[in-house]
Structures are given as structure tokens and as C-alpha cells.
Amino acid sequence: APRAYRLAAQLGSWRSRRSRNVSQRIHKCHPNQVAAIAANPENFKVYKYMKILEEAMKTDEDKLIEKVRGIYGFKVRNGPNGDEGYWVINAKEGKGKVDYNGKDKCDVTFTINDEDVADLISGKLNPQKAFFQGKIKIQGNMGLAMKLTDLQKSAAGRIDSIRS
């Protein structure tokens, strides 16, 4: 009988260890989790573009919110000093908003480098091409990911005026 108890105890510890590993993996994959978020978002190259995008949504001449109706998450990697940042673009309610380290549940999440996200938002980088080139990872609603081009077009004119 003692041997059976030892085997059951070993099996039980293996099962608990296995379930703990699975839950850790699920937690790591959750789109709203980023490893170490930078304290100051202003040091990221994408910061000014996110502000322009928010301004474009606030004025909303093109009725963007009605077209898009989604919440986008951007995990931005390779920022200043290798930091990561996380922005949430809520284009679902009201006039829309952009939050650094936002807590809204995202419909689609993009993982991208700081260099590339500025080009993505400005419209210089096509989301579909970026995906196939491996510059961007997409989790969530792919149909909504395709609607990102509507937001890009709205912000592109304002961004070009800043660059020149």
C-alpha cells in the first residue's frame, strides 16, 4: 500500500505542475499583458503618432468610429533602452481615445517594433505586407485588423505635415 500512495502522490504533483504550466502559458499569451512597461511613453517614437491618431479620432470628420468600431492593442517592442510599451486605441465608443498602458479588452492586438509602428500608423507600412514580412504579429479579430487602414488614412495627412 505505501508504494501505491507514493505513486499517487507523484502523479498528483505531476498533474498540478502540468496544469500550473498551462495556466502560466495562457497568462503569458493574454493580449493585455506586456513584460515590463516603460514608465514614460514620451520616449517612444510612436508616441507622437498615437497623439495624432487620437486627435484624428476626436475631430472624426470621416466618421471613423462608425466605420471601425473596435479596440486595438499595440505591444510596442524595442523602444528606448529596449523597453516595451502598450497602447490601447479605443475606436468603439464616443469619439475614441488612445491610452498608454490602457486596460480595455482589445478586439485585436498587434505586436510590433517601435520603428515599424510609426510607419504603420502613418500609412507607409501596409498592415498586410508587414504581417507577411514578419514585422507584425496579430492576435484576435483579423477582420478588424484589416480596418486599421481606415484609421491610417485619417492620420496620414497630419503625420506627413509633421515630417516635413
From TrEMBL:
* Pfam families (alphabetical): SCP2
Cited Gene3D superfamilies: SCP2 sterol-binding domain
Name the domain of life: Eukaryota
Which residues fall in a coiled-coil region? none
Extract the InterPro entries matched here: SCP2_sterol-bd_dom (IPR003033), SCP2_sterol-bd_dom_sf (IPR036527)
SUPFAM superfamilies from the UniProt entry:
SCP-like
Q: Which GO terms describe its cellular component?
A: cytosol
Residue intervals of the SCP2 domain: 55-152
Protein name from the UniProt record? Sterol carrier protein 2\/3-oxoacyl-CoA thiolase
